[in-house]
Specification:
CATH topology of the largest domain: Rossmann fold
Radius of gyration: 25 Å
Number of domains: 2
CATH superfamily of the largest domain: P-loop containing nucleotide triphosphate hydrolases
CATH architecture of the largest domain: 3-Layer(aba) Sandwich
Shape: elongated
Number of helices: 11
Distance between the termini: 9 Å
Strand content: 25-35%
Largest sheet: 6 strands, mixed
């Protein structure tokens, strides 16, 4: 949640939300804010709780506990009013293949209660924003997957919502189709608050201002991409190949060494993967210790961590010891082995 900041520009506020399905805890005490004009990536592996959270935001599900405010309104007490503020593109993008694109948009506009000149203007704007004029009179079944995604996005924009929620908007697209959809999301995000879910890290790196990481129903990290990159850079791996006595005990004496993993031996030389946090380079200290203790070094090099390594460390099975299952969302719908506790921004 945002601290020491005005809440006037918060469009989404989620506080202590929990959702269960029988014995399964799909969303577990989740809290986060999304500010006006942000494009926020909701990142997590399959079965992490992303879709359930989005369905809670759009009033498709009702939380067991907690509060969701959409532009200051409780979405349980004012579900119809809050739904009107949100455009939603679900993962399965429910389209009617036997309809022409313009028939489908006309149908959705009717469902939204649009009529007359407002209906015409809104459809024209949605078609223009999503660049689907060339398929406007084509059957949906004859459109490519990329254009079907655009048609689904157009229906989400028809009522001109301030908030756009998209669940896996590029899922199933080939690399050539993903690029224009990403560009479209960035363009649309310049005018609205956007929350999009994905399990593909490159999606959020190229489209989002801020990131929420969820795994097994819990938010385990949130912050700007720069914040999380800095967090990743603060954890480094030093690889050592050495022959000598008391190596592992000696390495533990070096400040900022958090974990030492013995990764095997070759010709009497042992290989260690050493995880280091904090500032400074520990390699000179390792080298000095090797000289003092008569170790023979064959290899000593450092590898910086990437954002994907951080994501893996936070979401891999066993990363959060409080989590009780590997997958807790209803079925509908690297070489680094870090084990430090999940952090929260």
């Amino acid at each position: 949640m945002a601290d020491n900041k005005s809440t006037a520009d918060l469009t989404i506020q989620v506080s202590g939300v929990t959702k269960t399905f029988g014995p399964t805890v799909a969303v577990n005490d989740v809290s986060f804010d999304v500010r006006k004009g942000e494009v926020v990536g909701f990142l997590g592996p399959n079965g992490s709780g992303k879709t359930t959270t989005m369905r809670l935001l759009t009033s498709y599900y009702t939380p067991d506990r907690g509060e969701i405010l959409i532009e200051g309104s409780d979405n349980q007490e004012n579900d119809l009013a809050t739904r009107q503020k949100i455009g939603y593109l679900p993962e399965n993008n429910p389209l009617y293949g036997d309809m022409l694109v313009h028939e489908y948009l006309d149908f959705v506009a009717d469902l939204r209660g649009l009529s007359g000149s407002e209906k015409k203007a809104n459809i024209e704007q949605a078609v223009d924003e999503t660049h689907i004029a060339e398929i406007y009179y084509k059957p949906i079944s004859e459109c490519s997957k990329g254009y079907r995604q655009r048609a689904g996005l157009a229906q989400a924009l028809l009522h001109r919502p301030n908030i756009l929620i998209m669940d896996e908007p590029t899922e199933g697209l080939d690399p050539n189709q993903r690029v224009p959809i990403r560009e479209l999301i960035k363009t649309i995000g310049a005018q609205r608050t956007v929350l999009l879910s994905t399990h593909v890290l490159s999606e959020v790196e190229q489209t989002c201002d801020r990131l929420l990481v969820i795994t097994r129903g819990r938010i385990v990290a949130q912050g700007t991409l720069d914040d999380l990159r800095a967090q990743a850079r603060s954890r480094r791996q030093v690889n050592i190949e050495v022959k000598g006595k008391g190596v592992k005990a000696g390495l533990r004496e070096i400040p900022n060494v958090d974990e030492i993993e013995d990764v095997g031996a070759v010709d009497g030389r042992r290989r260690y993967s050493v995880l280091v946090s904090g500032e400074g380079d520990v390699r000179p200290q390792v080298f000095d210790m090797a000289k003092r203790r008569d170790w023979v070094l064959w290899d000593l090099h450092e590898e910086g961590a990437s954002l994907s390594d951080l994501f893996h460390s936070l979401t891999a099975p066993g990363a959060d010891e409080e989590s009780q299952t590997e997958s807790n969302e209803p079925t509908e719908g690297g070489r680094f082995r870090w084990r430090w506790p999940p952090f929260r921004a």
